[in-house]
Design a protein that fits this description.
This protein is an alpha/beta fold. It is 53% helix and 13% strand. It is elongated, with a radius of gyration of 22 Å. The protein starts with 5 loop residues before the first strand and ends with a helix.
């Protein structure tokens, strides 16, 4: 881990999760500085991680080689404009984890030519098990891309896309995706209890099955389809259950749901851009 100073503008859950991962990877806690107007939040970060803190965003920026923007999208313009006069040459690398805020808007606020990587994490990044997708602006050098990926990898798996527009599809698949799996787990747990299992047993069996299936998919060279076929014995219980799901149109339903999430992501981005 490079011995650079990383500033987090905003000290919420995503900042805390990345800080936890960076420290676990060997980054010195004194090389991390967090700015936030909430003193209680800053005190909690100091107690947990031993990081440096400040209530002044500009002070945090001036100390940093790399700046992670972790504020709520609704205040993104205000915060970036506040930082803009303090962005000096050579400009530091900015990494944005602000949902829905386009790169063009961030660069307009911070100043043209600002190196920028936009990232879309999901909630499992809070336990360093996230799926995080990144896109870099043309001003961002290969070494800066590597630095950004090193920071974001603290939250989990990282992947790159070559078009920013694909971030809306990413939002629909991995950003919203945990909720899809939570819904299926919720239903399985409920049905298990209705079939007579103790609620705690239904819950633990559901969670462990989901975890085991995910690990098999991650660690296997086979596709999910091949894994599914392998556990589906002809004439057996799994085949009967899958026939019901297929006859109910599960593939078309999931496709419509994910497309709706993608469309909503595009709408929200346009709304945030219009309100800036």
């Amino acid at each position: 881990m490079p011995k650079e100073i990383i500033a987090f503008i905003g000290g919420g859950n995503m900042a805390a999760s990345l800080i936890a991962g960076l420290i676990a990877d060997g980054h010195n806690s004194q090389g991390l500085i967090v700015s936030d107007p909430d003193e209680a939040k800053l005190d909690a970060l100091v107690a947990r991680f031993g990081v440096r803190t400040t209530g002044d965003n500009v002070e945090a920026l001036r100390s940093a080689d790399l700046v992670v923007l972790c504020v709520k999208p609704q205040v993104a313009g205000q915060v970036c404009r506040e930082l803009s006069p303090a962005v000096e040459q050579p400009k530091p690398l900015f990494v944005s984890v602000m949902a829905g805020i386009r790169e063009q808007s961030i660069q307009e606020w911070l100043g043209e030519g600002t190196p920028l990587v936009r990232a879309m994490p999901n909630t499992p990044a809070m336990i360093q098990s996230g799926a995080i997708v990144l896109h870099a602006t043309p001003e961002t050098s290969p070494s800066q891309r590597d630095r950004a990926e090193t920071v974001l990898r603290a939250g989990g798996l990282t992947r790159w896309v070559d078009q920013e527009e694909l971030m809306d599809a990413v939002t629909a698949i991995s950003g919203s995706g945990p909720a899809y799996f939570f819904l299926l787990m919720e239903v399985l747990e409920q049905v298990g209890a209705e079939l007579g299992l103790e609620p705690e047993n239904a819950r633990l069996l559901t969670i462990q099955t989901a975890l085991g299936a995910a690990r098999m998919a991650m660690e296997s060279d086979d596709s999910p389809r091949e894994l599914r076929e392998r556990v589906t014995s002809p004439g057996g219980t799994t085949e009967r259950a899958l026939e019901v799901l297929e006859s109910g149109g599960i593939r078309a339903l999931v496709s419509r749901a994910v497309s709706a999430a993608r469309d909503r992501s595009e709408e929200l981005s346009r709304m945030l851009t219009a309100s800036r």
